[in-house]
Predict the 3D structure of the following.
Amino acid sequence: MRLLLVEDEEKVSRLIVKSLTAERFAVDVAADGARGLEMAGTYDYDLIILDLMLPGLSGTDALRQIRQQNEHIPVLILTARDAIGDKVLHFEIGADDYLTKPFAFAELIARVKALLRRGAVSRANALRVGDLELDRLSQQVRRAGKRIELTAKEYSLLEYLMANAGRVVSRAMIIEHVWDQSFDGATNIVDVYVRHLRNKVDDLHERKLIRTARGVGYAISDEEAA
Amino acid sequence: MNTRSIRFRLTVWYAGLLGLLLLLFGASTYLGLRHYLNQTLNESLGRQAQQIGDSFLVDVATGGEGYVISEINEHYAPELNNRFVRVTRADGSVLYVSGKPKESSFDPSAVSAVGAPVDRDFMREVHAPGGELLIYTHPFTERTGQRYLIEVGAPYEQVEVVLYGLLLALALGFPLTVIVAISGGWLLMRRALNPVDEITRGAEQITSRNLSQRLPVAKTGDELDRLSAALNRMIERLEESFLYVSRFTADASHELRTPLTILRGELEAASGQPEVAPDLRETIGSALEETERLSRIVESLMAISRLDAGEARMERDVLDLAELAASTTEQMRLLAEDKEIALRCESEELVSIEGDRARLKQVIVNLVDNAIKYTPAGGLVGVKVRASNGRAMLEVNDNGVGIPAEALPHIFERFYRVDKARSRQMGGAGLGLSIIKAIVTAHGGQVRVESVEGKGSRFLVDLPVADKTSE
């Protein structure tokens, strides 16, 4: 998979390239809008990450012209502007997703992956992490074959963690997917739910699956914590 | 009636001044007229007395006394004209005296004689039965040297009737004029001061959120117009400085975002390295937590300055506040249970309001979250929604630690914290209540707090209910 990153802030682009390369993506970088537009027309990219505040040709104008050339390529907007009006405008022009700085890089990667598998979303009916199984059809969860009773929210949380198994998901991502943005920032609701989930999933077992990445978020995996 | 209003005071001054002027005018008219009437009567009586002497009494030697009497009666008809005429000889005997007047207002025979010898003209007042008489006395010496005393009088009543008429006219006219002046002045002042009321109403409505509004200018070119225009220019300057401050906050928040992104990215990347030592990983984690808090502060500041500047794009849906409160409270139940706090939500069936669902939900989340944070285990947190007097009321109460009285006026201020150590430990930045206030104000509502330290707090949000016709 080859991605194009149009970002003028050198440090930001270096970090994005680093984290995306770690996920085995090939990333090209353009430092301004005109160069980005040129590269988007030259190579066949799978996805474009576009910053809005660019020297010369603005991200908004670049997006318009990219859409004239190619209707289908997924475009993820990256910006320090978060006015809802801005968001609506860019979705109208043809952006596929919108991420506001400062963002968790885990979230950027999750969104990039979500955009890339769009159209052919693999929604496996059964998710499995070690001896923990989740059946999306019956909404049943078993650990080592034994049924675990979960509330609706606990189930949603576990499903989200397992769908992103092996990857750290931030509190903001969890809140956005399991609750909604109204809960953002004000509460430690995620921590409370994760603790309850741990009681039910991990407490009776030697091998702990849910892991805390301090300052980043939570992850579920079968690997021993590093 | 507001006795301190300009309208009242000006009317009182105006009426008082007018009353005083009328009083002075009335008094001078009365006195002047009385003086004039007295003088006229004096002159007329004197003229008559002299004429009686010069025209008739002069011929008494040739014509005889009978001639004199008939001439006086013929020329002056004293009984018909209400006049008193008497001619006395030097020895005191009466040559002629007029009869009772037609209206019998006085009795001529009862008028006393002048005692002392008289050598020049004079006036006197006599109290005759039936009224006061004004008498002019004129000594006259006939050609042969015979001396006579001529007296001509008229009842003073004549003058009094005129003066009484004037007094009556003044007494009736005075209050009438003053009443007309007061009501006229009152109406005139209302007309003149109406624009002031309009300016006041307009100025009352202007808040930090609608500084783009202006006061009405009637374009009459008068003083009030100039006042409106001056106020408008002041509002314009306020608007500029307000915009400047909120732009500054927005720009500053904005500029902080890119470095925060980099900081966070670097730290995340470092924390993801497998070879990082555990205690270094802890340090990085701690730095990441602080970065996240910094991001939240930046986001909150941005949100508040947008809401304050009226730049935030708000959804305007009709929604049921009771349902929103109930479902949001339900989602937070676990947080309360975790601290062994009873969380209760009581609400009426339907309280429909118009607003931004996500933001209103944020208000409820923040208030309930605060209540849970500041209530010890075993406490009680209650959420109530009701409609009263066209307002939707949301109440969040607790029986927790409460807020000290001296902190109450400040708790909605940005970055204000009641107990600094404690709330920092809770992860707050002192912006939660400011956001609540900004959201509620943007919805045309108000938020207030009642609290007793140690007993608990009660936050009350009131919002306008949705206009039924717009549903």
In short: Chain A has a mean pLDDT of 86. The first helix of chain A runs from residue 10 to 22. Residues 97 and 111 of chain A are 8 Å apart (CA to CA).
